[in-house]
Write a structure and sequence with these properties.
The protein is of the alpha/beta class and 328 residues long. The protein is built from 11 helices and 11 strands. It has helices spanning 65-69, 92-96, 111-119, 122-128, 143-155, 170-173, 190-197, 202-219, 258-270, 286-292, 306-317, and strands spanning 8-18, 26-31, 52-53, 104-105, 107-110, 131-135, 159-164, 180-184, 243-250, 275-280, 322-325. The longest helix is centred in the middle third of the chain and has 18 residues, at 202-219.
Length: 328
């Protein structure tokens, strides 16, 4: 393990046996913190960079263990809500809860501890062509931690993907060399993007162009992988070029207008990016907002119909793109 092994970052979940975050069977490491506020976000616990309570009240048996253990007396009675003005997020109540009713989203972990957790599933990567995917939140929000994780995984021969919204410091992005970028593109028009995510897409589109240029250089035999000559990147072996897949979240009433779809198809094609994955909206994250005590940002809209998804696929294919539904 390198000298960066004790570098720490904030992780809110490590999901094993993932099949939608890149090729093969994967471990997905979710890093906390995101500068965007997409109305449909299915991981609201990822947005803040700080740990947050996400209790599971149905599991609570009102045993009183948390009340007795809390050093700040932030829990008044069994089953009562935690007083956020007193709580220091010390995890004591989480550790003593016998049923897992008290959940804290966000743990400080070292590079060593994360990579050790990833390596436990090594046999599944080797057999399926899988690996690890760093997601979020926005993994580029913790650039030094992400860089160290990517370097260490690639040094150990583990396939690395980064699932990103593209919001990040371009200088940091230049130092991070995964095998695969899964790059979200939600809108090309700046006003539309700001309306649905709360932020401009200027940096996103500039970073997309940078990554696309890197992948083209790799295909042409340039320094497209971590074994290149970047001074800040430790050489790894074997050399593998970085690949890029664009992901398009298809959200009814937000991103699904034909004009927006065509704008994305045109932009992706112009950058010589060959593949785009369409990710239809789902409601899987709604319950999380309740657990965090936050309102959900969208009305209860229905996922796009199969006919609508097929229409979007057709529009994108007109630009010569390989279009797939879902991420794999």
């Amino acid at each position: 393990m390198s000298s960066t092994g004790q570098l720490t970052g904030t992780v809110f979940r490590i999901a094993r046996f993932a099949i939608h975050d890149g090729p093969g069977i994967r471990t997905t490491v979710f890093l906390k913190g995101c500068p965007l506020r997409c109305a449909w976000c299915h991981s609201p616990e990822s947005q803040s960079s700080k740990p947050e309570f996400m209790p599971l009240p149905d599991r609570c048996i009102e045993c009183g263990s948390c009340v007795a253990a809390c050093p700040e007396h932030a829990i008044a009675a069994p089953g009562a809500a935690t007083r956020t003005d007193l709580c220091r997020l010390c995890r004591t109540c989480v550790d003593v809860c016998p049923t897992g009713a008290r959940v804290l989203a966000g743990d400080e972990m070292t590079v060593v501890s994360v990579v050790d957790a990833i390596e436990r599933d090594r046999i599944f990567y080797d057999e399926s062509g899988g690996g690890v995917t760093f997601s979020g939140g926005e993994p580029l929000a913790q650039p030094a931690f992400l860089e160290a994780l990517v370097e260490e995984c690639r040094a150990r021969g583990i396939h690395v993907a980064i699932d990103t919204s593209g919001v990040g410091d371009p200088a940091a992005l230049e130092r991070i060399w995964p095998d695969l970028f899964l790059f979200d593109v939600k809108a090309i028009d700046e006003e539309r993007h700001r309306a649905i995510t709360g932020a401009s897409n200027d940096v996103i589109l500039a970073n997309l162009a940078r990554v696309a240029a890197r992948t083209r250089a790799g295909k042409a035999g340039g320094t497209g992988g971590a074994s290149g000559t970047n001074a800040r990147t430790r050489p790894t072996s074997p050399a593998r070029p970085t690949r890029l897949v664009v992901r398009f979240p298809l959200i009814p009433g937000m991103t699904d207008a034909d004009e927006n779809v065509r704008d994305i198809g045109r932009a992706v094609s112009s950058l010589q990016i060959g593949r785009i994955d369409v990710l239809p909206y789902h409601r899987a994250g709604i319950a999380k907002y309740e657990r965090l005590g936050r309102p959900y940002g969208l009305p209860l809209i229905d996922p796009p119909s199969p006919e609508r998804v097929a229409h979007v696929v057709e529009l994108l294919a007109e630009y010569g793109l390989i279009v797939r539904v879902g991420g794999a």
